[in-house]
Design brief:
The chain is 55% helix and 9% strand. It is of the alpha+beta class. It has a single domain, classed as Glutaredoxin (3-Layer(aba) Sandwich).
């Protein structure tokens, strides 16, 4: 067999086999997609549970008074994650002013965050979700 013929056979044999790095990249992409899917599933499940908790707080008459510039309010909001949009939040800060919103003044809110419950009791500062659940009777997921 001539050298030219052997070379053509080797080229044909190599063309039939996928490049080894392509296989490695495909496996890495598959693992990344699986990990992202798992993260999304777990995160979505937790978020939907906290949605119900935040909605329960609203239904039970709890209110959180806070200000956009308040670091403790930011900590409290972070505990709810994206479910905070369902929380019973009242913004007291007025952008461009040092004054508090009238609704906060009327509620006699002096510190942020302040939680006011349906029975009229109130607590100041950021509190755990467990505590808020105990105060309102809302089941925590």
């Amino acid at each position: 067999m001539s050298q030219e013929r052997r070379r053509r056979q080797q080229e044909r044999a190599q063309q039939g086999q996928p490049n080894p790095w392509i296989k490695k990249v495909a496996i890495a992409l598959l693992v990344a997609v699986a990990a992202a899917g798992l993260y999304f599933f777990v995160h979505q499940k937790q978020t939907s549970r906290l949605n119900a908790f935040a909605q329960c707080l609203s239904a039970r008459g709890a209110k959180m008074y806070g200000a956009f510039w308040c670091p403790h309010c930011a900590d409290q909001k972070e505990m709810f994650g994206s479910s905070f949009r369902y929380a019973p939040y009242i913004e007291c800060g007025i952008k461009g002013s040092h004054a508090a919103a009238q609704v906060c003044t009327d509620a006699n809110v002096k510190h942020y965050p302040t939680w006011v419950f349906a029975d009229g009791s109130r607590v100041e500062g950021a509190h755990s979700l467990e505590f808020l659940g105990q105060e309102t009777g809302c089941p925590l997921p």
